[in-house]
Amino acid sequence: MIEAVGLTKRYGDKTAVYNLSFQVRPGAVTGFLGPNGSGKSTTMRMILGLDNPTAGQVTIGGYPYPKLPNAPRQVGALLDAKAVHGGRSARSHLLCLAQLSGIPARRVDEVLGVVGLQEVARKRSKGFSLGMGQRLGIAAALLGDPQVLLFDEPVNGLDPEGILWVRNLMKALAAEGRTVFVSSHLMSEMALTADHLIVIGRGQLLADMSVKDFISANSADFARVRTPDTEPQLREKLTSALTEAGGHVLPEQDGALRITGLPLPRISDIAHDADVRLWELSPHQASLEEAYMRMTQGAVDYRSTVDQKSGLMQPLPPGAQPPMPVPGQGQPDWYAPPPPQQGGQPFAMPQGQPGPYGAPGAPGAGQPNPYAQPAPAAPQTPAAPPQPPVSAASADLTKPEDAR
Amino acid sequence: MSTPQPPMPQTAAPDWQAAAPGSPYPTYTSPIPVVRTHLGHAISSEWTKIRSVRSTMWTLGVFVLLVVGIGLATAALVAANQAEDSLTGQNPLSFGVFGLLLGSMCIITLGVLTTASEYGTGMIRTTMTACPSRARVLTAKAIVFFAVAFTVTFASVLLVALADVAMLKGAKDPSGGDWLKGTFGISFYIALLGLLSLVVGSIIRHSAGAVTIMIGLVLAPLVIALFMFSSALEKVRQALFDYSIPNQLGAFYSNSLSDTGPTGWDPVWIALGVTAVAFAGAVALLQKRDV
């Protein structure tokens, strides 16, 4: 059980973490998400008493970390895999940690077995790959058989087998009644591993809720409706009927309609009443990744830009046109915030500025893009906050079809 | 279709205790018995650390090589070239000082590495997580390092001293006091110098920086004094000479470069005082700073 109350950390005039309050409960895997530089690692260091908070406090089981009786027996942590003296063998590294907290030496060989490093136990950790370093770090976290476990990016550099192992390990640890707090950038991994999410951006809490709720609250779940291609007038008819009933209708490029704000049975009823046949009526839920991007896009500090390579270009011959950069190429697209009636904007996130690539681009113009060319202005409810133009979400980045 | 999700309240969380009986959440209890940790655990951990890295073997190996090698070579050279009665009244142990002066660089390096290398590698975060009592970690490091440095220095110095006495027949017979100062005393002093380096390493948290500072501390006063020609600076020059570390080393054999400087056991008291102050400062900084 980790509890943070009003946690604040300033480095000079830069505020890394501001007024962060959350609880991490036992018996569940809690994911800790946030863009680079959002204060995840700082928060983890404060939990472990490595950094002193400027204000507020964080406790584990009711105690600040330094006051815990035999802290390493209650809390295990993988902060970063390289926090190891490279000249020391894996076994010596774990042995000195075991001795420090009065753990019997045979436990060292146990955890080496658990993480699969017995073969290289007497090799110096300098020669370890990133994945092996992670395994050594996980071994150190497990050494004290603790009640609370913190992992900062545990699957970094692990092979698929290792990722699967970590995923099952986290779940098994939580199932034993331990508190497991994991930070990661891999959304697909978090969706599979975590039960609960704490999301921060620019050092402030953005969300503290279950994965399911998080996705629902931060994604524009929609229904796709397809009317017979042969009769375009049916499409018009259905659109007006649905809009009348309070739904938002966005035509899609291939003639389908994207409907938000109406439950599926209601859409079916309306279509039936309007005497419109349907070829498709399907629910769509966004992935955790899309929900996350939607939520944190205003809080991203480090955003990549297109590499123009202008310094490397030969001067163009007179009259020649410079090549136009393909919009959205290699770029994460702007994710439209959830429509207001979808649970609104529960979080006071910066709103209103359209993304740098807000214009509808068509990445992969060759293949049909189900979301390309949305209507620029959907009907708005009067109380709705200003909404940036809905942009094209590239199909290769978001996988809304396979929800979670 | 999702239902509206109200914002999560940040402060209105239920008030409950994780460890309290009747907690609504499951808890895990490890089958491994939990012991109360103390300084002894930290000392055994630091002992494992210091003997499991190669830099310890390298620095101590070179130290022994320098002290014993140069000590024996000096003794052999002096023994071969001494004129009749030229060594009369001389303390034969004093020929060990040349090797020690060079060897002290190795002890300084090892002392700095004991603390600063943990900062360089990031190991310190792992250590401080495993032992949140930072003063305990530094104390354990200091005890283990001092014991290792003193033992190795004492063994090397004793070997050289025995060889000196055996080879230099013309010199005086060292008294019990001479023996104590020339072996135990100087080893204690060198180990203290290493301990000061360890403390400086903990303050500076950067290996190269701390080694530079310590080597500067050993050599700079003497070098600076050499260039103080002006008579107005005569007093400063003399003080720098007197309290330079090579001169203080000489005091252990009562053949200082000058007559006004520290004598007898003074260097040990000076080093003890400086190290104690630096140690207190390092502990205070350790508590205050983020790891």
Automatic annotation (TrEMBL), chain A:
GO molecular function, one term: ATP binding
Annotated Pro residues bias: 315-326, 371-389
Stretches for region Disordered: 309-404
Gene3D superfamilies, alphabetized: P-loop containing nucleotide triphosphate hydrolases
Domain ABC transporter, residue spans: 2-227
Annotated keywords: ATP-binding, Nucleotide-binding, Transport
Membrane spanning residue stretches: none
Composition bias type Low complexity, residue spans: 342-370
Similarity comment: Belongs to the ABC transporter superfamily.
Record protein name field: ATP-binding cassette domain-containing protein
Organism: Streptomyces coacervatus
UniProtKB/TrEMBL annotation, chain B:
UniProt keyword Membrane, yes or no: yes
Keyword check for Membrane: yes
The organism's place on the tree of life at top rank: Bacteria
Stretch list, region Disordered: 1-20
UniProt keyword terms in alphabetical order: Membrane, Transmembrane, Transmembrane helix
Transmembrane parts of this sequence: 57-80, 92-116, 137-163, 183-204, 211-233, 268-286
Signal peptide: none
Protein name stated in the entry: ABC transporter permease subunit
